[in-house]
Amino acid sequence: MKDNLQIPYGVADFKTLRRDRLYYIDKTGFIPTLEQAGRFLFFVRPRRFGKSLMASMLRCYYDCAEKDNFDKLFGGLDIAKNPTENKSRYQVLALDFSCVIPSPNATLQQRFEEYLGVCLDVFAMKYESGYGKGFADSVKGLSTQAKFSKIAETAKANGFPLYLLLDEYDNFTNQMLRAEGNEPYRDITHGQGFYRSWFKLFKAAFDRIYMTGVSPVTMDDLTSGFNIATNISQDARFNTMLGFSEADVLQLYTDFKGTGRYSEGEPADYVRLIKPWYDGYCFSTRKIGKESVFNSDMALYFLGSLVATGEPPEDWVDRNIRTDYDKLQMIADIQHRIDRAKDIDSGGEDVLPIIERLAAEKQLVFDLVDSFPADKIPAPENFRSLFHYYGILSMAGRERGRTVFKIPNICVERQLFDYLRGAYKRKREPRWDVLGDLAAAFAYDGEWKPFLERLASDLKDTQPVRGSIERETRIQGYMQCEFGHLKYYLARPEMELNRGYCDFALFPERVHYGDAAHSYLIELKHSPIDATDAELAAKYDEALKQLARYRADRAVPSLARGTTLHQIVYQFKGDDLVRAEQIAEEAM
Predict the structure, then answer these.
(1) Structural domain boundaries of the chain?
(2) Are strands 230-231 and 40-44 parallel, antiparallel or unpaired?
(3) Most buried residue among 310, 370, 512, 527 by CB atoms closer than 10 A?
């Protein structure tokens, strides 16, 4: 019965998901390929892509303690049709290092070993029948390292194969890097540091290891001098192992139609609607242009609103995902701590100028670095690579032998705008309430000049920052940030119209603001502060020709239907607005 379908939003435990009959996008078909990839695997993805659910599913599949539950857990799924020889073969130690929470009352090593000790006690109780009565009690009173040694040695003596599933391996190390800097971090990941020492023990004791995290930074530091795992993060075979393919989302929305209040609208239409918001991730150069991935949490969030209310959510960006973009500040803090510790300027980049460039140009071109230590984060290629690992940039093309990275979707773009807007250093704080009133008049009354003049005035109050990019791109990025905050529009910077690229094409976001009465084609022109009148006039004439070309695109009448379309030249000399002029106005 469709009424029994439940959305698995936020559920990361496979056993709970299957027991409670929550909907499951079947990822079990990747199990044979994972086994072919190697015995010791390392896999990174951004947050909220389903890493923990995948690890939980693998635990249930390989765990000998779940052998009698196999049909209940995996019946009807791909792997049940042709399971591998390793099905239900292993004693599994499942660890989640996001549970290692620093405390003012204990050292990080103490908190780590407390957590690991509890997990080892649970392991000993779970598999005690294979080791003999009293085994769990004999382990319980030992130190954490002694517990581990006794379990590993006894398992080996009895021929019991062990599998380690380690989720969020770099969670607490990233927090340490941000809060305490590179030296305390280095103490635990190098030489005889406790974290590195534990990984040596893991590699020796387990027949198979599967580890997940957000970036390869900690793994690089841990494995200097010895190899622990094969990095499959950019392997084309696993591009869609996490997240949802477009086919997955279409099937999901089709299956849920008719549940709750979700009765109107075609599933395929909703998928087209959310695609620019939640799709666009690619993690392998071999899959660029061939295969992209939806953020699974966001697709489920949107569906949840359809089922609950019959309508899309008011805010298409889930507030739970907004906190993930604190990672931008984490990247910045880590770099600055490393620079300060060295008492040098590393020559590395800052977060803000990169986001300014992304807002203006929509892409960066660089070679993804698949492994680098923490103290090398400030190096430009490494620093930019973190933007990919954290899900802020995605592989989108190739250019002169290098990879083109772009903002994957509107959801991420909105988070970047939020960060950029809050990060600008200002001589005075703008009156956001006044700007909001001007924005509403811009969208509903066609009062475009006060709004554009106010944006230009606020721009002059922003101060250059360390590493800031050239003025023209900074102005473009600033304006894109502000236009991107206009909830009434789906801002389309550099929108392709009639073989040209319009700087700002603003057409109403019709789901929630279909009553917005005005659309805009805005061409931004910038000249240096010492530009002559003739040079300014030439830029103006160029803008006139470009606007005429954009207006002639056959898609414009449809995009602007029911509104008044304004064509506007927005011209700057240095930071000064020299012209905000409407060229044409017409009802569409």
Answers:
(1) 26-238, 324-406, 424-587
(2) parallel
(3) 527
What is the per-residue pLDDT across 529-587, written as a single tens digit (0 to 9) for each?
999 999 999 999 999 999 999 999 999 999 999 999 999 999 999 889 999 999 999 99
State the residue for tokens 């009448």.
557
How far apart (Å, rounded) are the C-alpha atoms in residues 94 and 190? 24
- Rounded to a whole number of angstroms, the CA Rg of the chain reads 27
Higher pLDDT, residue 415 or 329: 415
DSSP string spanning 285-297? GGGTTT--BB-HH
Beta-carbon count within 10 A of 76 CB: 10
Checking if the pLDDT of 1 tops 50, the result is: no
* Burial (Cβ within 10 Å: 0-12, 13-18, ≥19) of residue 95: buried
> CA–CA separation, 510 vs 402, rounded Å?
38
In angstroms, the CA 176 to CA 185 distance is: 6
Listed residue (517, 505, 526, 533) closest to 577, CA to CA: 526
277 neighbors 316 (Cβ within 8 angstroms): yes
Q: Where are the beta strands (DSSP E) in 168-313?
A: 208-213, 230-231
Class of domain 26-238 (CATH, top level)? alpha beta
Q: Which amino acid, 471? A: R
428-482 per-position pLDDT tens digit: 777 888 899 999 999 999 999 999 999 999 888 886 654 445 677 778 888 888 8
The DSSP-derived string for 548-566 is HHHHTSTTHHHHTTTSEEE
Task: Return the pLDDT at 98.
Answer: 92
Residues 79 and 12: their CA atoms lie apart, in Å, by: 19
Predicted confidence (pLDDT) at residue 227 exceeds the cutoff of 60: yes
Q: How far apart are CA 506 and CA 559, in angstroms?
A: 9
Which of 410, 282, 396, 393 minimizes the C-alpha distance to 331? 393
Q: How far from 111 is each of 101, 107, 136, 275, 587, CA to CA, in Å?
A: 7, 6, 22, 42, 66
Bridge partners (DSSP) of residue 502 are 495
Instruction: Report the side by side order of strands in the sheet with 363-366.
Output: 363-366, 402-406, 394-399
- Which alpha helices (H) appear in 401-518, and where do they start and end? 410-423, 432-444, 448-460, 471-484, 510-513
d(Cα 364, Cα 383) in Å, to the nearest integer? 12
Least confident of 91-95, 159-163, 379-383, 419-423: 419-423
Nearest to 504, CA basis, from 421, 588, 567, 446:
567
Amino acid of residue 155: A
Instruction: Determine the Cα–Cα distance for residues 190 and 182; give it in Å rounded to an integer.
Output: 11
Amino acid at 205: A
Mean pLDDT of the chain: 89
Annotate 318-339 with DSSP letters as a single string: -HHHHGGGGHHHHHHHHHHHHH
Nearest to 176 by CA among 224, 233, 112: 112
Tell me the per-residue pLDDT of 387-400, one tens digit each, with 9 for 90 and over: 999 999 999 999 99
